[in-house]
């Protein structure tokens, strides 16, 4: 079973004007694949999911399920199951009746639908709750009930629209594991929508990063993190976010260019041809940056404005002339906020992006012997 989105566009009529929600996007979800749409609020990810489910009619484009065009097919005839952000259990029905309801509307015999409801309740580890009502359940129990209701009729694909957004952090981790377990057992594609990149990175086989109705990048979590297609993907994927610093590009001869950052230059070969003009942005992940107490020892000098503890790690924010740089895992305890410091990193760990378009020009150099940041200067 596969799901394919082809040139999908959705335009809403808002009064006398039009609002473009999704702009000619394409992707395909393979059999048994966990595929996540991620992006900021209003980027078009939920609209895309609703078009796949049949709850919205595309302005143009196609939705294919296992090769069949279902763009104009009614939602109940697509064989898909959708779980919404608002789980909306029926308060006057007990748990078993809530789980079995999708089977009831499909005309399944009462005995069979209650048997199947009990089976999925066992799978979701809530068999003892079958006679309780939603008002008697905790948040996690209601969430498990909603998932059971979603999968009870063996759908061809699972669609989930931000199902964890109303849960606390600990419960999110617990339910995330349940969703992954259900996906593996169901053996069908799962299309998951979230604005939380940590959810996307931890759960997905592949991710589509969206912004303003466009797909900005598609790939595995590792591909999006290590080789982002543009500055939007680079900044959205990763926590803490990537550092982006303006730099100057010069001619290094042949296919190589020189990158000048803070008076220090290095040569790099661009993966996507030569950029227009001389402005680029250097991208460096915070975990590959170090802060040194000697202002003259690193590549850039600045003021150590903030030190934050993140679990067993410490995150430093250094103000420099062109903005700020964040460094994760400080190597010394002697650094103090307000002091003048320098920033060190290895040129091999640098991404390069076109300063105008934001498109990637080069990524970190693979298969090289990296020095520690404090030795690379």
UniProtKB/TrEMBL annotation:
GO cellular component: ATP-binding cassette (ABC) transporter complex, substrate-binding subunit-containing
SMART domains on file: AAA
Entry-linked InterPro entries: AAA+_ATPase, ABC_transporter-like_ATP-bd, ABC_transpr_MalK/UgpC-like, Mo/tungstate-bd_C_term_dom, NA-bd_OB-fold, P-loop_NTPase, Transp-assoc_OB_typ2
Cleavable signal peptide: none
Topological relation to the membrane, as annotated: Peripheral membrane protein
Lineage: Archaea, Methanobacteriati, Methanobacteriota, Stenosarchaea group, Halobacteria
Protein's recorded name: ABC-type D-xylose/L-arabinose transporter
Major site of localization recorded for this protein: membrane
Family indicated by similarity: Belongs to the ABC transporter superfamily. Carbohydrate uptake transporter-1 (CUT1) (TC 3.A.1.1) family.
Catalytic activity: L-arabinose(out) + ATP + H2O = L-arabinose(in) + ADP + phosphate + H(+); D-xylose(out) + ATP + H2O = D-xylose(in) + ADP + phosphate + H(+)
GO molecular function annotation: ATP binding; ATP hydrolysis activity; transmembrane transporter activity
């Amino acid at each position: 079973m596969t799901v394919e989105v082809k040139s999908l566009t959705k335009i809403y009529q808002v009064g006398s004007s039009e609002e473009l929600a999704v702009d000619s996007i394409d992707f395909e979800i393979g059999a048994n694949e966990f595929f996540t749409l991620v992006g900021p609020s209003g980027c078009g990810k939920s609209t895309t999911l609703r078009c796949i489910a049949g709850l919205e009619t595309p302005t143009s484009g196609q939705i294919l399920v296992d090769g069949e065009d279902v763009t104009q097919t009614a939602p109940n005839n697509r064989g898909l199951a959708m779980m919404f952000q608002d789980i909306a259990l029926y308060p006057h029905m007990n748990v078993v009746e809530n789980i079995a309801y999708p089977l009831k509307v499909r005309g399944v015999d009462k005995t069979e639908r209650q048997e199947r409801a009990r089976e999925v309740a066992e799978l979701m580890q809530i068999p003892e709750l079958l006679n309780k009502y939603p008002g008697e359940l905790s948040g996690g129990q209601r969430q498990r009930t909603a998932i059971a209701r979603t999968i009870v009729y063996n759908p061809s694909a699972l669609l989930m629209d931000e199902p964890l957004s109303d849960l606390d952090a600990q419960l999110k981790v617990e339910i995330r594991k349940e969703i992954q377990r259900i996906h593996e057992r169901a053996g069908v594609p799962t299309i998951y929508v979230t604005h939380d990149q940590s959810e996307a990175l931890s759960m997905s086989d592949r991710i589509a990063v969206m912004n303003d109705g466009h797909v900005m990048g598609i790939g595995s979590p590792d591909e999006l993190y290590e080789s982002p297609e543009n500055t939007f993907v680079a900044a959205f994927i990763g926590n803490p976010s990537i550092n982006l610093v303006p730099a100057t590009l010069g001619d290094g001869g042949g296919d190589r260019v020189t990158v000048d950052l803070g008076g220090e230059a290095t040569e790099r070969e661009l993966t996507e041809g030569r950029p227009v003009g001389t402005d680029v942005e250097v991208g460096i992940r915070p975990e590959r940056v170090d802060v040194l107490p000697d202002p003259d020892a690193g590549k850039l000098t600045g003021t150590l404005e903030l030190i934050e503890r993140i679990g067993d790690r410490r995150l430093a924010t250094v103000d420099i002339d062109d903005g700020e740089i964040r460094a994760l895992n400080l190597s010394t305890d002697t650094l103090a906020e307000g002091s003048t410091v320098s920033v060190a990193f290895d040129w091999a760990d640098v991404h390069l992006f076109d300063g105008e378009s934001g498109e990637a020009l080069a990524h970190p150099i693979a298969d090289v012997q990296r020095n520690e940041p404090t030795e690379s200067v």
